[in-house]
Each structure stands twice: as structure tokens, then as C-alpha cells.
Amino acid sequence: xxxxxxxxxxxxxxxxxxxxxxxxxxxxxxxxxxxxxxxxxxxxxxxxxxxxxxxxxxxxxxxxxxxxxxxxxxxxxxxxxxxxxxxxxxxxxxxxxxxxxxxxxxxxxxxxxxxxxxxxxxxxxxxxxxxxxxxxxxxxxxxxxxxxxxxxxxxxxxxxxxxxxxxxxxxxxxxxxxxxxxxxxxxxxxxxxxxxxxxxxxxxxxxxxxxxxxxxxxxxxxxxxxxxxxxxxxxxxxxxxxxxxxxxxxxxxxxxxxxxxxxxxxxxxxxxxxxxxxxxxxxxxxxxxxxxxxxxxxxxxxxxxxxxxxxxxxxxxxxxxxxxxxxxxx
Length: 330
Known about the structure:
Elements: H1 12-44, H2 47-68, H3 70-84, H4 101-141, H5 153-169, H6 177-207, H7 211-240, H8 255-296, H9 306-329
Helix pairs in contact: 1-2, 1-4, 1-8, 2-3, 2-4, 2-7, 2-8, 3-7, 4-5, 4-6, 4-7, 4-8, 4-9, 5-9, 6-7, 6-8, 7-8, 8-9
């Protein structure tokens, strides 16, 4: 009788490489969402309305999923039980660790407001800088499910190179204060993104160790973000009035579906690789996809200049530099 040899279990380094590949795909989806939401915000003349549509459509998708799949509802119930009965153990979860959707809502608003002015590439490089620096602090403080991660010289150097990349990418726009100011908004969004990924990973781990926990974390994220955006939209409606009529092209409304995929996927991947490595792979996907989008499907009249290309490549180099100690250690 022949026996079938079992496959060897993946090594820790292979897990890291798989996680980086998944994070790369997440980054591509993020760049696509930025283009879609930026276009929708431009058509509506209201970035907040576009963000609400994006988040709201994602919430509807996840609510349908939870209605159809009982294990998602079980995972949500587990999160609710843990928050109501907090403990000091490793599996504890506080209420503030369930509001990562606020960062996501702010990010989508900045997409809708800034991309049509500064382009996807500059927007992405600015997000990269904020995310690279913030993820260092978030990992060091142990906000994510992987626990505290140490500072290393290469991590710090990589974060500094990412900041330099932003300066280089916007260097030809320093004479345009409005465009430069708009680049600050996605940089702040990048800071929030690292925090969002960390706490969403904790929620996913609490909900369930499988993929259903990540989907439950995504649902909570979209629920919180949609609620916040709805309040802001109502205020905006009173102050500025109604946005333009809704465009008829169906592809403009796919941003919410993209968000469902990459938010849930990030909540799953961060448990394996940590916030910093997830950020590295995501950043790489964002940079490459955003550059191609601005070259072939531009959202603004800003040309892809040499400083933008150089800044993108420098930010990508920062990702490679900062990832070296993670791949060696694990």
C-alpha cells in the first residue's frame, strides 16, 4: 500500500512572504478605490456624500452576508460578549478597539476630496508616509494582535525614507499651497490607517480565528464608519445643500465592494504578519497601482511628473528597506 507524504508546514518566513503578497493585493484594491471614490466625489461635487455612498454600499454588502451566513453572526455575538465583559487577559477587547471605522471614514473622505486635485499617485505617497511612521509606533505599543514589535534601525530608516519620498513627490507643487495642503490630509489618513488595521485585527481575533472573524471585523468597521459619515453628511447637507445628481455609470459605485474586500482581508492578514509588515505590502501595491492609474486613467489634470515618479520609487525602496529585518527575524 502506498502512502501519500504529507506536505511540510509552511515556515514562518513563508508565512511572511504569503502575507506580503496578500497585502500587495490589498494595496492594489486601495488604489483602485481611491480612483473610484475620487471620481465619484468630483461628479457629485461633494466628497462627504461620495464617502457615505462608498461606506454605505460596503455596509449593505456585509449586512447581507451576515444575514445569509450564521457564523458571521456568531462572530459578531462573540465580539459583543467580550466587550460587555472585559478582562485583563490576552483576549480582552475594549469598546474603543471597535471604532477603527472612524479612521476608514476619514480616509474615504480624503480620497473623495483630494484625488481629483492632486492625483492618485501623490495621494498614495502621502498616505504611505503617514502609514509608515504611524505603523512603527502602533507596532511598538502592541496595538495589533501580533503584540509589541521592536524598533530596528532599518525600520526607522525606511520610515524616514518614506517621508522623504512625499517631499520629493510634491516638490514641484510647493508653489501651489492649496495642492500642498491637500497632500497633508491623506498623510493624516495614513496615520489613522495603521491604527485602524491594528485594532481591526484585534477585533477579528476576538470574533473568530477563521475568516468569519475578519468579515465580522469588517462589518463593525463599516457600521461605525457609515454612522459617523451619516452624521457629518447631515450637517454638510444643512450647511452647503444637496450634492449634484447621482452619476449613472455603475462602475463609480464599486468602491464600497473594494473596501469590503481589503478591510476584511487586512483584518485577517495583520494577525499573521503584524501591522508594519502588512503596511509594507499594502504600500507597495498602492504605489505601483496608483502610478499606473495616473498614467493611463488619470483622475486629475495633474501630469505624472518626474518628481512624482521618483517619489513613488523612493517610497517603494523604503518598503523594501524596512521589510528586511521582519523577513530575517521571522
